[in-house]
Amino acid sequence: MPNKSRKILLLPGDGIGPEVVREVKKILEWFNKNKSLDFKFDEELIGGASIDKNKIPITDEVFYKSLESDAVILGACGGPKWDNLEFSKKPERALLKLRKELKLFANLRPAICFKQLVDSSTLKPEIVSGLDIMIVRELTGGIYFGEPRGIQPIKDNQRKGINTHTYTTNEIHRIARVAFDLAKKRNNKVTSCEKSNVMEAGVLWREEVQALKDKEFKNIQLNHMLADNCAMQLLRNPKQFDVILADNLFGDMLSDEAAMLTGSLGLLPSASLGEKGKDGKTRSLYEPVHGSAPDITGKNIANPIATILSLSMALKYSLDLDKEADLIDSAVQIVLDEGLRTKDIMSPGKKEISTTDMGDAIISKLK
Ligand code: NAD
To answer: Given CB 3.0 to 4.6 Å as the disulfide criterion, which of 50, 83, 322, 353 pairs with 45?
Structure first.
């Protein structure tokens, strides 16, 4: 449906956020002009930028706009200017609000090691070259949200910290379904991680993931792995994995570990998906894994690739534009093949270019 109008909300945010989202905007404009697509994109304030203007990290108006959009693309929130605000007023609250209110229960983080950048990884090239795995992390349940929680005084002047790890059948099926559906588009292989050797919630996780697979996803190859073993295997032989499924806590750690296999923070996109709303739209938020990078803000040296690949994920997972997503992914590959690098991924013999030039170079390869 080349002429179908699609609403995208851009939330550049703070620090390098506006610099990298600007390159995404250029790509959207290019698609409108050259591929007869009809992206309607709007840009709004979030995080510290919103605090400076509106005194709050996200206004209701922006929040409702995000509900009405087909996809939201965020730069980054936060920075030293707002570090001393109390927790409930910090820029990062905007992100938490979006994740909570859009009910974004699934976090997708690809870890791809571009062959051109294999030397940026701390692992041996043969271990990581060509790596392409997807971590699916549950985002709204588990120990980060379970009740009871808190710090309580106990006898003898001691204190007790409490968090509760809890998952229901429905929560497990909901996230496992995302992993299985993704696997169908990839290599039909899912590794589900838990600690069923020491946690009842882990036993339930393993049983329910298996039950869903047996019932609805008979053709998927499902392996169960203890989360600590998965952490080791990611370093030993990461290419054995395709889709890794994990709860909130283990997914948090495994996705950071997998990210580091690839070498650079400036290259890592992410997607957070919610349930379908009454209007049939799946709520979603796409953002680079990195933060606002205050140390390089305003210098036009930030790497825009993570945000550009986040756009590619939005095209694939929210906008039904797989071909256009592939076009962006290939354009990034060609630019890297040609030896163009932003400062963070620069190596001897390559050509260092700015944020703006990297965006332009990728656009020039979209053709
Ligand atoms: P960071 O990701 O901003 O930066 C870590 C290091 O990586 C820095 O040296 C930075 O220059 C570099 N870097 C990051 N992105 C880069 C890019 N695209 N190109 C080149 N280099 C890049 O993490 P931090 O320094 O811990 O956090 C800075 C601020 O960002 C904090 O206020 C933090 O709360 C916030 N933050 C926001 C998000 C988010 O909005 N999702 C995520 C993480 C951190």
So the answer is: 50
